[in-house]
Amino acid sequence: MTDVRAEPPEEGRAAPPAPPHRARARLASLVGDDAWSREFLAELDHEFRERVRRDGRRAAGRWYRIQAMAPQTWRFILLMKRRESAREEGTMRGSERSGLWSVEGWAGDLRQAARGLVREWRMAAFIVLTLSLGIAANSAMFGVADRLFLAGPDHVAEPDRLVRFYLKVDGAAEGARTAPFIPYLTADAIRREADGIEAAALYRNQEMVVGFGQDTQPLKVTVAGEGYFDALGVTPYIGHFLTADGTGAAEAVVSHNLWMRAFNGSPDVLGRTVDVGPEPHAIVGVAPRGFTGVHMNPMDLWISLPTESAGSRNWFLLGRLGPGLDGDIGRSRVSETAQAVHARTDPGRFFGWAKDGVLLAEPIGYDDSGQPPAEAAVARLLVGVAGLILIIGMANVVSLLLARLTRRRREVAVRLALGSGRARLARLLLSETLALAAVAGLASLPVAYGATVLLRRVLLPDVAWTESPLGVSTLLLTAAVALVTGLVVALLPLRHAGRANVSDDLRAGSRGGGLPASRLHLSLASAQVMLSAALLLGAGLFMKSFWNLRLTDLGVDADKVVAVNFRALNPHDMEEFDTYRRALDVARNDPSVESAALTLGLPFLINFGTGISVPGLDSIPQLPGGGPFFTGVGDGYFQVMGTQVVQGREFTAQERASDEPVIMVSEAMAAALWPGRIPLGECVRIGGSDSPCRTVVGVVEDVHRVGFREPPSMQYYVPLAPGGSFGGLTLILRARSLDAATLARLGTRLEDADPVIAWADTRPLASALDSEIRPWYLGATVLGMASLVALLVSLVGVYGVLAYLVEQRRREMGIRIALGASRSGIRTLVVTRGLTAAGVGLVLGLGVTLLSRRWIDPLLFETSATDPVVVGSVAGLMLLAALAACLVPAHRAAGVAPAVCLREE
Amino acid sequence: MAIGDLQYLTLLAVARLGDDAVSRSIRNTLEQVAGRDVAVGTVFVTLTRLEDRGLLASRQGDPPARGGRAVRVFSLTERGWEAVREARAAGERMWEGVEAP
Question: Quick one: which of A224, A524, A746, B81 has the fewest CB in 10 Å?
Fold first, then answer.
């Protein structure tokens, strides 16, 4: 390729003015390397300098650009090419000679593409930035989706063949629900007898206080029955897994993380002892790194199942489908066989509620209510969002490449005339887009890294991550997405170039394209606006949902209440009421505590239910939210929780002390049992009709017991009696500050209240709602950020298209002005064009979102896709932004000097 | 051999300039003597075509004494002279019997 630099100055003289760099460089890339062609370039330079002296630099520059694209110039280039071809016996130079698929050819074209992109570095940088954002978003989303959908728990063999068993119970006092627990007898019978299962195991995850020498701390422990590790198909890192089934010494397997943390990764951990509660357990093995069992939450320890107490409890049950069974059909078969075993056993001995339950086998990724996890729905949404950002970016890039192709029509026509062939031209175009996509892919890596770290922390904070944020699979996906992007964005320009008419394009100026091309560009801009509008509307709806969540009256001041759960080395030690009484006194005397109380049962965390009977009613009406749920309340409970007593009064100290048969009911319960009457003084029997009558002394506002989305349920309150408790009490506090330091300090003080208290876990009650809020919070933030990025990219697209069209039609604008059109009229013309394109996109985007209401509305909270405030705000914002994008091109169009642009051609 | 009007003038310019027949001076001669303002590309195309037809020959000249690039020097070939003579004769034959106003 000819040297693009102009002649060096003669010694002692200033550098001569240089011709426009881009035009000269382009010309130099097209002329040959021979002396005659170089002389041609030199002559043009010389003429340019003469004109600078005579007419000024600007006029000379315009002249040069015209000459560089003039027909006589192209004829000269063609003549020289033919000479060269004839001289070299009909072969063409370098990569033009080599076959379409030759490495040499691709290498040459890639080099040429790189040079061209360096020359137009601003456009290239914008393309790289736009594409890298889209690629990064997809890589980050893939990492999350891979963990949730594809990979399954670490080290578990064939996780898609594993199932968890649930018990679906209808019509019990608690209402319809699906429980992840199975009574021991049923679970054990299924494990041993059910057809279609080749391995099964009972297990239970709980938090227990574990002692290592002098140190005790609460750890996440799995109590694992026989065959647990075999069913999962996992092999130990060192040592072996649990062998005993309640016989011999109690055994423990530590997680890799705990092994590194507490035992410094030393192999002599085997044989050492840990105290799980009061019971010493010998460590027999270490689990492989990242293994957490069937759930994704970090797990510290696995201990063997104590069969002597197993029968009194509920257990999780997992199973591995037998040969020939998989998918929904396999799970359905296994559900049937398990149900048959359940019908033969008698779980009612301990658990009457389970008697009429139906057994279901579901994939192990499902949550405790037998449903796909909420995070999975949000992750699917985010994968869609990432895809949209990439598509918007691609549309923008295609528009830019098409505009560039139009500017280079003559060059393309010359290449075709020189015998390049459309296939070779396609290779050159593809080299450009692949080079851009490759750079964008590399640029996306740090963004993907940051986005993945952020998503892991926000979306899946409870998951044990072992793979790096940029693991091998993510890197491979990034490369694949970059490759696909490079191919896709080349499609439309390739089609456009393939249709090029050589003779027309040789004669035409770099302006051209006409009506069909401008319609294409405007359509691309509209498409980008459409997708951005859909994203922005989604963000607005999620934000509205999140806002509605915050405004929901839960019946309790969850954001002001702290719940304290106590743990003792021996769980039985925490059944003494006095222990709690001492902790309550300590709390009430702490300066950071406004008020404190004890409770049995707590909204969002612990719900108890029993049947009731009411004189005069044959049956108790069922409310959609189920119930009745009961709470045993200590003095001060309602003040701490911020729950209003709407009729009557609270329990008196006398009633508490003497355990008098009194009761308070919720508004919904009162309305259901005694419609239209004042319930004070009415009688409620807890349990059967021969239980003592409890008199209603007060009515309490309805309280949410499970989450934000909850239909009314029956709730009642009884005084907390010092004599009886089961399942443990909870201390609740209303604290002046909920920062981590205050909570930690309170926890330490409460641990000192009584020697049996090993651990006081203080956490805000609102944290129990975090997992429910998280999808909307996440949707609002991620969609919000994504839609702003998409909006910016699409508005740059609108600006770019208008700027391109104004540039293409400068002559037309000049003529209009010369014929008397006002400059404000020209401005209006351009702005109208831009706003029309944006408006079409906006209407389509909103329309698509509204038509998808059926799928979108269930994801929202107390709002819908037709929310007028959100729709109106989004429409207004987008139109304003589109107007801003139109202003600069409109101003440029109005500033065209008719005489200058008419002279140019 | 038929040649066009611009080719005829270009051949004559080369003949006039002798050893100084380089692209720049040919162009200047066309402008100053023949009154034709010809674009750079047009001159180069004409010279190249004439050389390809064998009416001109070229050689790389010596680099100038004060530095710079050596340029191509053109000269008429025999065929070129023959073409010029034929064009002149044809022009003179066409003038016969024409009375200019």
Answer: B81
